[in-house]
Amino acid sequence: MPNDIFLHLGAHKTATTYMQKLFRSNKKYFDSLDTSLVLKRTLSQHGLHQFMSWRNHVERNLGAKRPAKLERFFVKLASSKSKSVFISYEGLLGSMHLGRSRTIYPAAEQSIELIKKSFQGKNIKVVFCVRGYADFIESTYNWLVKNGSGKSFDEYLSGVVVEELSWKPVVNALRENFGDENVLLWKYEDYKGNYKYINSRLLDFFYDGADDGELSYEENSDKNVSLGKHYMNLMVAINKLINRSSAISPRKKKKLKRVVRKVLEEVQRTGVGRAKMKLLPDETRKTLDDRYKRHLDELVNDGVRFIRV
């Protein structure tokens, strides 16, 4: 029965897909530490990966069927034979679709309480990555377009309460439920150039520095590709045309949009037309960047631990 529960809860758009592929490719490493890996794929196999990604999930009762099923799954994990369990999935706190949730993970507190309840009596350690608000908005919109939306950026942004975007409620809920000593953060802006160092610090945090091993890294070309501005505008137009068609079944629409996305991503990888995506007005971006820096300073001054590079 595990004593330790390790949680990597995101956030979305902070290299979580890359990290989960890395963890999966190092399964033997975690096996050697008697740690059971539970990634998005595992949750998907149990029909649980969209637990907190429902539309209007804030209004839904956390005692509903799917959360109850998730809780039973967690309780089962808590009684497994391994020494520790490592869960990495950014969707447990909510959806990245800001146009629906209107702000960042509005139901995070309820989700965190459910996780704590499921692993009651266990030693829980949580790691979490934050990202600048302006980049987070634009990156989540990019994800939406790549997954078939024909909405313009202005339409997406109209559903976001920009002035309320903040990581602080999520981070504070983690601290209140698990304790400052069991919560560790890092910035996505730091991870991009220091990912091996940060990954190493995460393992030190989980295993109290007792592990002498290292993760094995392989060059992986199968990474999430953010579309440049021109390609993204092209995909929005194509998605809109496909969505409007009454002659194509929903299933075929999904397949067609996936093909379009793959083609544009492949062209993007060649380096052609890779203009940096800037969708927010400069004034709005500056306001959001300043708020992000201020919130980081406030969290640090309040005792939150960040990995420093």
TrEMBL record:
SUPFAM superfamilies: P-loop containing nucleoside triphosphate hydrolases (SSF52540). InterPro entries: P-loop_NTPase, Sulfotransferase_dom. GO terms for molecular function: sulfotransferase activity. Coiled coil: none annotated. It comes from the Bacteria. Pfam families: Sulfotransfer_1. Signal peptide: none annotated. Residues 9-206 form the Sulfotransferase domain. This is Sulfotransferase domain-containing protein. It comes from Halomonas heilongjiangensis.
